[in-house]
Amino acid sequence: MNRIKAAIYCRISPFADTFTLSHLCGIQKSVLLDKAETTGFCVTGCYEDIGYSGSNMQRPALKQLLQDYAEGKFSVVLVVNRDRLYKEATENAPKFPFPVLSVPPGNRDD
Fold first, then answer.
1. Which of 12, 18, 44, 73 could form a disulfide with 68 if both were Cys (CB 3.0 to 4.6 A apart)?
2. Mean pLDDT by 10 residues, the chain (110 residues)
3. What pLDDT does 90 receive?
4. Rounded to the nearest 10 degrees, how much is the dihedral formed by the CA atoms of 89, 30, 34, 109?
5. 83 φ, ψ (degrees, to nearest 5)
6. What span, in angstroms and rounded, lies between the C-alpha atoms of 30 and 5?
7. Which DSSP symbol is given to 26?
8. What is the distance, to the nearest Å, from the Cα of residue 76 to the centroid of all Cα atoms in its chain?
9. Counting beta carbons within 10 angstroms of the beta carbon of residue 94, is it exposed (0 to 12), middle (13 to 18) or buried (19 or more)?
10. Are 59 and 11 in contact (CB under 8 A)?
């Protein structure tokens, strides 16, 4: 069986101390890894931007995510909320070249 290759993207805004930011990012990652496993996705990469605003498109992990997609490393991106990728007015949102699946923490299939 050929499983769909997925990437996980987590972002936490710069609003607290480093420990809290890392902890919250870890929660996002755990939710997404659980969902990927139950859905049957093959996770090929996890990308984390800790302490970055969603309106800043020059985030290191986001840039790497885009590069890895262009290299064919995955075909879909999992996020806990679409605003993890971009947080501004909807009409200004960039068009990402990949499908984005939103998996809110409360919507896990337990």
1. 73
2. 90 81 90 93 95 89 96 95 76 75 64
3. 56
4. -60
5. -70, -5
6. 17
7. H
8. 10
9. exposed
10. yes
**Kind of pairing between the strands at 5-12 and 100-102:** unpaired
Phi-psi region of 42 (alpha: psi -120 to 50; beta: other; left: phi over 0): beta
Are 54 and 82 within 8 A, CB to CB? no
Residue 37 is predicted with a pLDDT of 93
Provide φ and ψ at 13, rounded to 5°.
-70, 155
Q: Which two tokens stand for residue 70?
A: 């262009």
- Measuring CA to CA, which residue among 100, 109, 71, 98 is closest to residue 11? 100
Query: Both tokens of residue 31?
Result: 């939710």
* Number of residues that this document lists for the chain: 110
| pTM for the model | 0.85
Q: Which of 6, 82, 8, 101 is nearest to 46 (CA)?
A: 8
Question: Are the C-beta atoms of 29 and 8 separated by less than 8 Å?
Answer: yes
pLDDT of residue 19: 76
